[in-house]
Design a protein that fits this description.
It is a single chain. Helix 1 packs across helix 7, helix 2 packs antiparallel against helix 7 and helix 5 runs antiparallel to helix 6. This protein has about 230 residues and is mostly helical. The protein has 7 helices and no strands.
Length: about 230
């Protein structure tokens, strides 16, 4: 009974400690998150400014975006793993990105409808993974910005499933708008993570200085005139 009760009491504390550790690790990689945001915005602007791109050119751009974004996502997950924490959802998201990019590269004569379905599946799966990863991030580290990025991906994928027969121009404009929104969310998340990292750096010396007097008191020898407790 006591063991079960103590387990229930400690479980929220352990989950919070794990979230704190994962949040700090992601904060150390804030620049990777920001780069993913910038990459998305650039890709979106290219699509919106050139909506009449040929399907083959669009496929090349999409594949390049997937490959680079996938590498960044996997690197973030591996960095967390090296620090002894698990952030497997980012690694899986990166693998999904690479798979979508590989399909586009290995199937250069892909039809527009098939491309729409590839993008739709990728958007829904990667959005769900990102949404799941958001719940491992602390609120003050930008949990909702990561969650909004996942929600935007899921909504975009559902729209493509509902309208798979859209034209090339409409597809280019849709994915361009999505990429910009997604990129802005990640860019804001990156800056918030950077802010938390800098705040942690400022507080670290003060916390270390506060611990020194306590350690000194614990190691202080007993005075000769102090009577010892009677047995």
């Amino acid at each position: 009974m006591a063991t079960a009760a103590s387990g229930k009491v400690n479980s929220p504390a352990l989950e919070q400690a794990r979230s704190d550790a994962l949040s700090e690790i992601l904060a150390e990689s804030w620049w990777l998150v920001g780069l993913r945001g910038i990459l998305g915005i650039i890709f979106g602007l290219i699509c919106l400014l050139n909506p009449t791109l040929a399907v083959q050119v669009f496929v090349i751009l999409f594949a390049a975006y997937m490959l680079v974004d996938g590498v960044f996502a996997i690197f973030s997950g591996i960095k967390a793993a090296r620090n002894g924490e698990r952030w497997g959802l980012f690694i899986v998201e990166g693998v999904v990105d690479l798979a979508a990019g590989a399909v586009a590269v290995l199937w250069p004569a892909i039809t527009l409808v098939a491309l729409v379905w590839v993008i739709a599946v990728w958007a829904i799966v990667s959005g769900a993974l990102m949404l799941g990863a958001a719940f491992g991030l602390n609120l003050n580290h930008g949990r909702w910005w990561l969650a909004l990025g996942g929600i935007a991906s899921i909504i975009f994928g559902i729209l493509l499933v509902i309208e798979p027969l859209i034209g090339a121009v409409v597809l280019t404009m849709w994915i361009g708008a999505y990429a910009i929104v997604f990129g802005v969310f990640l860019l804001v998340l990156g800056f918030q993570l950077h802010s938390r990292r800098e705040e942690h750096k400022r507080k670290a010396p003060a916390a270390a200085a506060a611990k020194k007097p306590d350690r000194a008191r614990q190691g202080m020898p007993r005075h000769e005139g102090t009577p010892s407790p009677s047995p």
